[in-house]
Structures are given as structure tokens and as C-alpha cells.
Amino acid sequence: MLFEWLLMIDPGLRNGVSSGSYYVSENLVEFRANGDVAGFQIDLNTSNTEIDMQLPSGWTWDHSETDLVAYRWMDLRYQIILLL
């Protein structure tokens, strides 16, 4: 709530997450949520991992050898699939 106040964000404009889930298999990560998600971070256990991102429109991502970060300031009411 402090960051909402500092950034003058109206909390009434946000849709809180009441359910969310993720699934991880050998080379697949899948996220689902029914509300606003600002972003996520994944720690990669191998360097130079090839990444195929299927993010909803408006999302941005970047990665280093050991971390992947994706974010958006709007809502996520979609499924996100990552093939690693």
C-alpha cells in the first residue's frame, strides 16, 4: 500500500488475485492468475538457456545468465507459458 500511495496509484483500479497457480516440468513453466500480476522472476540453474517467451501484449522481459525477469504494470488474466 505504501508504494501505491507514493506512486499515486488508485488501489480501486486494481483487480486483486484470488487464485493463481504455476506448473513446472522439465523445460516448461506455466503461470495462471485471475487478477493483476505485476511480474515474476525465475532463477535459471544453467547459463545460456534458450528461452521462448509467450507473454501477453504489453509485457516486457529480460534475462542474465542466472535470472529471468518479466513485468507489466497492467493486469494478467491470461496464461503465460515459458519453454526453457
What does this entry look like structurally?
The chain has 84 residues and is mainly beta. The chain has one domain (19-83). Helix content is 6%, strand content 39%. The chain is built from 1 helix and 7 strands, in the order H-E-E-E-E-E-E-E. It has one helix spanning 2-6; strands spanning 20-24, 28-33, 39-43, 52-54, 60-63, 67-71, 79-83. A 4-stranded antiparallel sheet has the order 1-2-7-4, with no helix packed on it. A 3-stranded antiparallel sheet has the order 3-6-5, with no helix packed on it. A hairpin with a 3-residue loop joins strand 1 (20-24) and strand 2. It is globular. The mean pLDDT is 73.
Quick tags:
about 80 residues; mainly beta; 3-stranded antiparallel sheet; 1 helix; 7 strands; about 5% helix
TL;DR of this structure?
Helices cover 6% and strands 39% of the residues. The chain has 1 helix and 7 strands, in the order H-E-E-E-E-E-E-E.
Task: Explain the layout of strands and helices.
Blueprint (H helix, E strand, L loop, with lengths): L1 H5 L13 E5 L3 E6 L5 E5 L8 E3 L5 E4 L3 E5 L7 E5 L1
Antiparallel strand pairs: 1-2, 2-7, 3-6, 4-7, 5-6
What global shape is seen? globular
Q: Tell me the strand order in the biggest sheet.
A: 1-2-7-4
Number of strands: 7
* Count of distinct structural domains: 1
Low-confidence stretches: none
The chain-level structural class is mainly beta
Series of secondary-structure elements, N-terminal to C-terminal: HEEEEEEE
Measured between the Cα atoms of the first and last residue, the distance is: 34 Å
Separate helix tally: 1
